[in-house]
Design a protein that fits this description.
The radius of gyration is 18 Å and the shape is globular. The strands form 2 sheets. Strands 5-4-1-6-7-8 form a 6-stranded parallel beta sheet, sandwiched between helices. About 45% of the residues are buried. It is built from 9 helices and 8 strands. The longest helix has 16 residues. The protein is an alpha/beta fold. Helix 2 packs across helix 3. The chain has 2 domains: about 160 residues, Rossmann fold; about 70 residues, DNA polymerase, domain 1, CATH 1.10.150.240. The two termini are about 30 Å apart. Bound molecules: 2-phosphoglycolic acid and magnesium ion (MG). The site of magnesium ion has 9 residues, from loops.
């Protein structure tokens, strides 16, 4: 049997703000949604406080921000309006962050598995990655509605690792915001934070195990170093 330290690792990516720069399309679809209530548009700066828990929470928070707290029975129609607009425009102006595709090619060449663990609805994540021809990179793609729980609950990440056929002791989570770093900590998996996404605080405040500022840094050597350092950290 291959010793566990020689097994190629699994890299689990968050989607919005980590794999893909989705902000223009999220803001547009959100503003289209709240315009139905006559509310003023939100901005990119607002998005960092709104995104991260899926479309429902994003819409609720945007309405509250605009001084219009929602009755719970108003939400389903607004979520439907958001999903129709967002899915209808995909891929819109969404693109992978610089260096991502080259980094994924590099990791795949080293026999790594890759997966996505996002709080976006699974169907929207899958549709978007399909439009960008990126689905083929991933052994599993799970969303905020794939399980009965979602990030930061550890079971969203452990369930993703299981679906991807990964080994939890050889897995790493990469994300842009608190839910990603928290889900990794809750699952006992090392985390890498990226500073170019939608965190409303500097990512160093989230206490990730590592920060990378560009995907050029994401190499097998870096991942092996992180796994080694994390194993030492949890052993003491
Ligand atoms: O859609 C959201 O609210 C968050 O999505 P993410 O988990 O991919 O950042
Ligand atoms: Mg994110």
């Amino acid at each position: 049997m291959t010793p566990s330290h020689a097994r190629p690792p699994l890299i689990v990516f968050d989607l919005d703000g980590t794999l893909l720069d989705t902000h223009t399309d999220l803001v547009e679809s959100l503003n289209h949604t709240i315009a139905a209530l006559g509310l003023d548009p939100v901005s990119y700066d607002d998005l960092t406080h709104l995104v991260g828990h899926g479309a429902r929470v994003m819409i609720e928070r945007a309405c509250r921000l605009r001084g219009h707290p929602l009755e719970s029975d108003a939400l389903p129609a607004l979520v439907e309006r958001f999903v129709a607009h967002y899915a209808g425009n995909m891929p819109g102006r969404t693109e992978p962050y610089p260096g991502l595709v080259a980094a994924m090619d590099r990791l795949k060449s080293a026999r790594y598995r890759l997966a996505v663990c996002t709080n976006k609805m699974e169907s929207l994540a899958l549709g978007l990655l399909e439009k960008l021809d990126l689905v083929r990179y991933f052994d599993a793609i799970t969303g905020g509605d794939s399980f009965t729980v979602r990030k930061p609950d550890a079971r969203h990440l452990t369930g993703t690792i299981e679906r991807a056929g990964g080994d939890i002791t050889r897995s790493v989570m990469i994300g842009d915001s608190i839910n990603d770093i928290a889900v990794a900590r809750n699952a006992g998996v090392p985390s890498i934070a990226v500073p170019f996404g939608y965190s409303d605080v500097p990512v160093s405040n989230l206490d990730p195990d590592m920060i990378i500022t560009h995907y050029d840094e994401l190499t097998p050597e870096l991942v092996e170093r992180l796994l080694r350092e994390y194993a030492v950290k949890v052993a003491v």
